[in-house]
Amino acid sequence: MGFDYGLLLCADTLVPIYEKYGWYNVTCPVYFQQPNGRILWNASAMLLGKNNQLASKEIDLNGLRW
Asked: Whole-structure pTM over 0.85, yes or no?
């Protein structure tokens, strides 16, 4: 599809499964919007992409979580 990165919001117990497929756990905070405001994601967030380690202070989805 030509995307540089994929973001996965997943249960902590599933992290080892996704790591086997090349996903890596991000350590920065991940935010998303809800009708009542900006919310911090409290479970694991993982990335898959061309660059194995995306350095970021935070990830903001700028919208509702899926």
From this structure: no
